[in-house]
Amino acid sequence: MAMVAYLRAVLPVEHAVTERSTYPFPLTPYGPPVAGVPDPPDDDPVARGAYLAGPLAHCIDCHTPPLPGERRDWSRIGAGGVPFEVPGGVAVSRNITSSKEYGIKDWTDEQIIRVLTQGISADGRRLAPPMSGRASIWAQLTERDEHDLVAYLRSLPPQE
Q1: Is the pLDDT score of 107 beyond 90?
Q2: Is the Cβ–Cβ distance between 47 and 41 less than 8 Å?
Q3: What is the domain-level CATH number for residue 55?
């Protein structure tokens, strides 16, 4: 309550935003805002997919194992393992690398796109929160964005 009282007492500051990304994707309420990140090269599907999964939608933040102190183990990018308190228990982010045993190597491109845009896993089950609530955001991707995101995910080295 003290923080709210303080913030209400501080005078507002006018700040004009001089630059914004022109990338046509809805920003999500999760993770830090995109600031100072250049748009990806238009002719590089993996770079465009990395832009979507990284600074824009923060997928990699949730699908990379945690280290102490709210840091991520960037040597294991995409390996999953981040726990989330959800109604009814804990959900753990899954491995989204090309690992055959633990990741999405055997998934088709269509299955990867379906899990994102419809919230339905390759085995037909509905995703648990927090991913289950994000399908409506991912459903707004263009077909090109979907394929670029798949190209990026397939480029991630397998993490066991």
Answers
A1: yes
A2: yes
A3: 1.10.760
Name the packing angle between helices 143-155 and 109-118 (round to 10°).
120
pLDDT of residue 21: 53
Question: Domains in the chain: how many in total?
Answer: 1
> Quick one: tokens of 120?
């339905």
Q: Tokens 């590089």 correspond to what residue?
A: 44
User: What is the domain range of residue 130?
Assistant: 44-155
115: left (phi over 0), alpha (psi -120 to 50) or beta: alpha
Residue 1 lies in a domain: no
The percent of the chain in helix, strand and coil, each rounded to the nearest 5, is 35, 10, 55
Q: Is residue 33 part of a domain?
A: no
Query: Would you say residue 94 has pLDDT above 70?
Result: yes
Residue 105 lies in a domain: yes
Please report where in the chains the tokens 């600031």 appear, as a residue: 35
Quote the mean pLDDT of the chain.
84
Measure the CA dihedral 113/117/123/129, to 10°: 130
